[in-house]
Specification:
The structure holds 2 protein chains of 2 kinds. Chain A is built from 8 helices and no strands. By secondary structure, chain A is mostly helical. Chain A has one domain. The longest helix of chain A is centred in the first third of the chain and has 29 residues. Chain B is mainly α. Chain B has one domain. Chain B contains 11 helices and no strands. The model of chain B has no long low-confidence stretch (mean pLDDT 89). Classes of the chains: A mainly alpha, B mainly alpha. Chains A and B meet through helix 1, helix 4 and helix 5 of A and helix 7 and helix 11 of B.
Chain lengths: 220, 316
């Protein structure tokens, strides 16, 4: 690989971490959905670039799945759900942006510290990719923890899954069957969550997940 | 050795002479973008000359601090601007002063300006100083993180070595450098009181920061502060140009022609960055004061992320 090709792959994977931070920072609904679409687009480009580098045509299919499903279909569907639920003007944050960012930064540092010694045997390129992927996964988890709104939590979950796809493309030899089944399981999870959102809303008149805590009798 | 001193001397004069012109050009471009005719590009020179000739009025309860501050600000900013290799590397001072010194000099200027704002005891000065310090507490660490990222990348804190390293063949696309660039631009916008943070063209009390601190200054004191402010803009533009677009800068020990090419390249860079700045300013609205810390914390975050990601990058 020429230095330019490596740099480009590095830049794309690094941009995904950056977009994950944008997701954490953004608290308005529609902007959040747009940034999630951007996350999926960067993922698609990253995977496509890897496919070109590794001469692995099946990765192009993965990139296409990411682009069509996560880059277009899911954001548009979530957009419509948000409009139908009438929550497009709500702003939700449990912790304010600053501390969340700092915590996210600590998670990125943690994933680098954990990943680099563990993958000593692998090539430098795979190690970087895995460190990026782990930080995206952790940032997705952080987003699910810090948000109250169920839609934002769904986006956290989806961005986490983007990180998994990135990890899978970095580690060579993930079969296409696995990729497709992962993609479809996410789609099914999305449908289930979509139905759930309406159920939560029907029962509690809100998609604020604190309502669920109350029904379990955990907090008044 | 003699050439180094000559370059340094030209540089000292150049930043002093060119700074008001840069302000004038940005104002002119901005006016044209807003379909106004705008003042001549030489208007800042006329303003400064007029202010120097005018009488200086000082508040009764102003202390020596208030009177010395303009000179301190002017001197530190001028020195800091002269330390950046703008058109040629190999400045005489560059062995003694690296980029951390520049940050420290700017910090000194800010410290004295905030003190002077408090000194005369008007409420506007106090508001300005407190806001300036609020922004500075985020902008300065962000700036230092950018400096650390770039220095780790280039293996030196000397601006001339960083600049030389960046022109080298080993440097390619790098996510850390991209993050550092964005962070530095955000810091530069905040430090120069440009639009999303502060409006340099108004005297609206509730929104201004920089203008509130210098409200009581007049005459030659104000002239010095205005000159220092335009020099600060030049400094930040030159810093971005020197680190991220070092092409065309003259290498130490070249012939006369290379120096002319360096000057021409520098003028082009100033024009390009000035235009980009004005374009950004025209497209965006001013923020609420309490949104600014969020804006600056983005710079802080980008700088930190850039420094962290450097550890898993291919550092040439």
């Amino acid at each position: 690989m020429t230095p330019f090709e490596t740099d480009m792959a590095h830049l794309l994977a690094g941009s995904m971490v950056l977009v994950s931070f944008l997701l954490l920072y953004q608290d308005r609904m529609f902007a959040l959905l747009n940034i999630f679409a951007l996350h999926a687009w960067v993922l698609a480009f990253s995977v496509g670039w890897q496919a070109y580098l590794q001469h692995a045509p099946h990765l192009f299919i993965t990139a296409l799945i990411a682009l069509v499903f996560k880059g277009v279909f899911i954001p548009v569907a979530l957009h419509r759900i948000v409009v139908r639920l009438g929550i497009h003007r709500t702003i939700d944050t449990v912790v304010s942006a600053g501390p969340t960012m700092l915590f996210g930064m600590a998670l990125v540092a943690l994933s680098i510290v954990v990943m680099l010694p563990v993958t000593e045997a692998a090539g430098a390129f795979v190690r970087e990719d895995l460190a990026f992927a782990l930080s995206i996964v952790l940032l997705g988890l952080l987003m699910m923890v810090t948000r109250r709104n169920a839609v934002s939590q769904v986006i956290g979950f989806m961005s986490l899954e983007n990180g998994l796809v990135l990890a899978a493309t970095g580690a060579r030899g993930m079969p296409l069957v696995v990729e497709i089944s992962v993609a479809f399981s996410v789609l099914i999870a999305f449908i289930v969550i979509g139905i759930f959102l309406f159920r939560i809303r029907e029962r509690f008149d809100s998609v604020d997940v604190r309502a669920l805590d109350m029904s379990r009798g955990e907090s008044a | 050795m003699i050439q180094d001193w000559q370059t340094q001397l030209v540089q000292l004069v150049l930043v002093l002479v060119l700074a008001p012109l840069l302000s004038g050009v940005t104002r002119k471009i901005k006016s044209r973008l807003l379909r106004r005719r705008g003042p001549s590009v030489f208007q800042p020179y006329r303003d400064i000359l007029k202010l120097i000739r005018k009488e200086t009025v000082i508040a009764d309860n102003a202390s020596w601090l208030f009177r010395t501050t303009p000179y301190v600000i002017f001197a530190t900013t001028w020195l800091a601007a002269a330390l950046i290799p703008t058109f040629a590397a190999g400045l005489a001072f560059s062995a003694a002063a690296d980029v951390i010194v520049i940050v420290a000099l700017l910090g000194t200027a800010r410290f004295f300006l905030a003190l002077a704002g408090l000194d005369i005891g008007t409420s506007f000065g106090g508001i300005g100083s407190s806001r300036e310090m609020m922004f500075a507490s985020l902008a300065e660490p962000a700036m230092l993180l950018v400096v650390f990222t770039v220095s780790l990348f280039a293996g030196s804190t000397q601006l001339s070595s960083i600049s030389a390293h960046m022109t080298g063949p080993a440097v390619g696309l790098n996510i850390s450098l991209a993050l550092a660039l964005v962070a530095l631009v955000i810091v530069a916008i905040a430090e120069n009181a440009r639009i999303p943070v502060d409006n340099p063209a108004t005297h609206l009390e509730l929104t201004m920061v920089h203008e509130a601190m210098i409200l009581e200054y007049s005459g030659r004191h104000l002239a010095l502060i205005e000159a220092a402010a335009s020099m600060k803009l030049l400094l930040y533009v030159s810093l971005v140009a020197c680190i991220f677009t070092p092409w065309g800068t003259t290498v130490a020990g070249s012939d006369a022609l290379a120096y002319f090419i360096g000057l021409g390249a520098y003028a082009l860079k100033l024009l390009a960055f000035g235009f980009a700045l004005v374009l950004f300013e025209t497209a965006i609205a001013k923020m609420r004061v309490f949104r600014v810390p969020e804006f600056l914390s983005v710079a802080l975050m980008l700088g930190l992320l850039g420094a962290i990601l450097l550890f898993i990058s291919r550092v040439p």
